[in-house]
């Protein structure tokens, strides 16, 4: 069916190829689930085994790249105009980025991952205490700064180019310093297609596997008689109905309020586990665990277990899989984080994105994971760790050792449900954003379309057993996107350098002495762009007479100066030189230099008429190789004054013994 332009903001060049790929992959996963999973797993395992070092390297670069920006002068740059204000309160902002980022994963892995590491025999023949400490350490590593650095790189790049450069909120915008206006062509469409498919696959697989956990929990507490497809259909339909309603109400309403509800409920559950669990042990293990993580940070960050073949399988199935999963989710999470971060400074963005969720994850994983390990050792007699292969039920089995276990399990199911809704509604919003290139006022049916697609595909794959194939496909796409993210970092650095130079650039040196006396002449010079011969005339009529007059004045004080020039052949210049025997020569020169004029200025109607690509300016240079500047606006007397300023500086520096290294260079011979 052909959609009228007036009724949709979808871009066919993005949406149609993406839907074809999504449907094609889903059909293969449904018709040939085992074969598709088999061949995709071969590809995934090959990538993990042969390029695990690359995953480690790129994630490490992302961490240190963001830390560099955090402490650098670029941290003061705002994500938006210099006077931009944040759209959301700090609490709302953190709630939304956290709920979209990994909220549902915390519920699923809060007990499952620490217990898995604790019970894994491949981690070595260690004492019970050391196994518990290592379980906490590896969980911190997988859910800490490294994970959020991946999201942070994409989110920061998007927010910067969207709000600072006023480009669309689209992954293609992150390539602007490299591709310029070509981002609006086919190359930009391909990047957005990649992001759209990655987001769809990530949310679909999470929705499918999460529904299995919800069903298992409802059966465990007796609210459902059994796990079957009918109940899974009902759960998916309810989740997607609420998600669509939330997404169509906008980020400032549904998504924000659900995220706030989510974080409040999660904190209440966290406090319950803390107060009813081994409280003193949990506080002590939190402090020790953070210290252990800090001490092991660099060894964990760079470790590929190349000398420990017995650890390779664990390394691939946990660390590398996590890095691939976070990377594959980063287009979705990054887009959403960028959407809600306008008005924040880069330092504020990095600090909040890296530290706040990381610290909360440490609290969460310590209180849940260490409580589970402590209970397994003291009360459960190993029954919790014995269920390590039943991750869907582990959380609810864990709550059996707490008071009011049924009520707490129901409350935890409510949190899981809301986490799913917030992940889905923000995902729907992001997919519509990508498919319309950030168009404003998209019709609500488009949001409903993506919600319906998520529900239909996840249910079909859930029924046919094809979810694992889709998850594997998502993990395979992570490596090429990691390379794309490195290009994001490069583009961001280029953009920040230009940004800093633009706002830090002072007024022209030649304008310091301006008054209103010659304003018409000044205006004439500003709006005029010169050819090479014009600047040679300036050197001949203004610069050379000024330097020759100054030469005579120096001689009156017993100082011999020379004026040299070349105005007939390149290089074109005029300079005054005072030679010394015991210290460096004083040189002040002006040369004819070419400058490239931007296409933007040349093509602007309401600007001076500039026909040539290059213009020419008189540019100073000095004997000590300091950077020069344009002096085209100087009068003859202003030229003389400028030379004297530099001569005064030269004499003041020469009077200081500590500057001998620079000023005594005439006495040193260069080595042969």
Give the topology:
Layout (H helix, E strand, L loop, with lengths): L11 H20 L1 H39 L18 H30 L8 H16 L1 H19 L12 H4 L6 H35 L8 H20 L2 H26 L2 H17 L1 H6 L9 H28 L6 H33 L12 H9 L5 H31 L8 H21 L2 H10 L1 H27 L14 H8 L5 H25 L5 E5 L6 E6 L7 E11 L2 H4 L11 E9 L13 H19 L5 H4 L9
Antiparallel strand pairs: 1-2, 2-3, 3-4
Helix pairs in contact: 1-2, 1-7, 1-16, 2-5, 2-12, 2-13, 2-17, 2-18, 3-4, 3-9, 3-12, 3-13, 3-14, 3-15, 4-10, 4-13, 5-12, 5-13, 5-18, 7-8, 7-12, 7-14, 7-15, 7-16, 7-17, 8-9, 8-15, 8-16, 9-15, 10-13, 12-15, 12-18, 15-16, 20-22
CATH level-four homologous superfamily name of the largest domain:
Amino acid/polyamine transporter I
| Structural class assignment | mainly alpha
> Which sheet architecture does the biggest sheet show?
4 strands, antiparallel
CATH level-3 fold name of the largest domain: Amino acid/polyamine transporter I
Report Rg: 32 Å
Q: Could you tell me the mean pLDDT?
A: 85
How many strands? 4
Unreliable runs: 1-6, 667-672
Tertiary shape: elongated
Beta-strand percentage?
under 5%
CATH architecture of the largest domain: Up-down Bundle
Tell me the domain tally.
2
